[in-house]
Amino acid sequence: MKKIKVLEVNNIDLNGRRFNGYDMIKELDNKKFDIKQAVIIKRSNNSKVVEILNNQNKQLIHSILEGIEKEQSIHNIYSITTPSLLNLPEYKQADIIHFHMFHNTKLSIYSLIKIANEKKVILSLHDPWFLTGRCVHFLNCEKWKNGCTNCPNIKSMFPLNEDNCSQLWNLKKNVFNNINIDIVVSSDWMINLVKQSPILKTQTRIHKIPLAIDDKKFSSITYKDARKKLKIKDDEIVLFFRAQNEFKGTKYIVEALKKLELNRKITLITCDQKGLVNDLKDRYRIIDLGQIDDKKMICTMNACDIFLMPSIGESFGMMAIEAMACGKPVVVFNNSAMPSVTNAPECGYLVNDRDSEDLMKAIDHLINNEKERKKRGNLGRKIVKKDYTIEVYNKSLEKLYESVMKTKQIKNKEFKQEQIDEENEENLKKYLNELTLRVITNNKKIRQTLTFDIDKSKINKNKKIIYDDLNAQKILEDYLTKLEKISREKKIVIKKSNAFQRAMFFLIYNRTLLIKKIKNRVNRRK
Fold it and tell me: Three-state DSSP class for 347?
């Protein structure tokens, strides 16, 4: 029986390995499947993981293009990642391409049309980014339902200097109107969003596969031993939460804990960002752990009495499942995916959205009610064993890959735009020519290869480049494909006179050193 060849595509291998495809290399390594992974940053020594940007030339160009996108206030359009991926032998040999964290990988949105014509494609939506112009979490904004005009959150994750959200929204809509692929989400909440999305309304193959954990790891240390390791006394109540400025609701936790009347010794343990709860130092004992590995996280989760996760944006909520596996009650806001994932209100303790007063009351109630803490904790363990184990997850993926292989490959029709905007396309060519002269190379032969012929009569200097014009995207794709080919064959000389370029050199040089240091540390641990 011929093995199904799957290429998992993500920005990094070891971070998020449980759901980005890396762990699948081992866990689905059987007679049915041959799993490989392609990433931007490789931290493991696994021979089945390949780097998409596999020379320093490409890495440098990748960094430069990121800067160009910031300059243009766009996202996932100027991509050398795409042509580099398409030239990998692992891509050419694959039956299925499974994308994870597409926005972090900096693949071109437009490239999905070409890839879906060549391969069976699965796209895992780990957040709502594909439903919006640029937001990873849209919070209370409803504009993703009708075009993302006048973005109210332009400075949140993936910020733009200029509001181009509507054209990015339109580009995504145009792309998905011309493909039909398999889409994976992890929660009922995300399924509901996909069904409401004008961008994804043409997609018919939607699969719910909840993320999962190895639940056995979470019982590897007892409550008593975990507290001993963290030097926590028997009479202390421990609240654990992830401190993060943007989406994890830390602001509301701090507000709630300022209001809480103290009648017990309470210790706060945080992970991720340090210093966000400093205002509470005069009232609580605080242990700021910062970034922690899985072992430390499991120890801390077992040592706590209550896990707080009042996120304001969450498409699944892995840490909530980890807390439930440790038998801890989880406090969540009534928003996003958290109520359904934690089976609230029976298991997860439900609080009014962004209501610090209600959050304080929930914390107070659980602190003073050990019986309820245990009841919700025991129910959480049962739910995890039923719905969120790695065995359940792997079986679901196996079934998906097998069903995708049985799906008839339909060649997508070439997109035809009703009205071709020639001025826009000539303006884009002009900009790309200027970009070549400004940053890419001072080699005359290479410069000629990358330069477009321009009809000067159609140049409109006052006209902004519109990237949701798919004909313009074809011009950009041609440019980036040539650039990637040159970067494989020749050493490209980058002009150093520009201050921006010097910054890019500094960035890529230090990034390369950092990756080497990380690899050395991993090797030493092994």
Answer: coil
Cβ-count burial 246-281 (b if 16+ within 10 Å, e if not): bbbbbebbbbbbeebeeeeebbbbbbbbeebbeebe
Question: What is the 3-state secondary structure of 250-318?
Answer: HHHHHHHHHHCCCCCEEEEEEEECCCCCHHHCCCCEEEECCCCCHHHHHHHHHHCCEEEECCCCCCCCH
CATH of domain 4-212+395-410: 3.40.50
How buried is 361 (Cβ within 10 angstroms: 0-12 exposed, 13-18 middle, 19+ buried)?
A: middle
* DSSP letters for 422-443: HHHHHHHHHHHHHHIIIII---
Residues of the chain with CATH 3.40.50.2000: 215-388
- Average pLDDT for the chain: 89
For residue 202, what are its two tokens?
């043409």
H or E stretch covering 384: helix 370-387
DSSP 240: E
Amino acid at 511: R
Q: Which two tokens stand for residue 218?
A: 């979470």
Of 435, 432, 427, 438, residue with least CA distance to 466? 427
Question: 37 in helix, strand or coil?
Answer: strand
Can you read off the two tokens belonging to residue 264?
């017990």
User: So what CATH class is 215-388?
Assistant: alpha beta
What one-character-per-residue DSSP string does 193-230 give?
HHHH-SSSTT--EEEE----B-GGGGGSS-HHHHHHHT
**Do residues 263 and 289 lie in contact, with contact meaning Cβ atoms separated by under 8 Å?**
no
Pairing of strands 306-309, 4-12: unpaired
Query: DSSP label at 233?
Result: -
Global confidence as pTM: 0.88
Span 240-278, pLDDT tens digits? 999 998 889 999 999 999 999 988 899 999 999 999 999
DSSP single-letter state for residue 33:
E
| pLDDT of 510 strictly over 60 | no
Which tens digit of pLDDT belongs to each residue from 336-357?
Answer: 899 999 999 999 999 999 999 9
* CB-CB contact of 423 with 460 (8 Å): yes
Q: Where do runs of H (alpha helix) occur along 326-369?
A: 338-341, 356-367
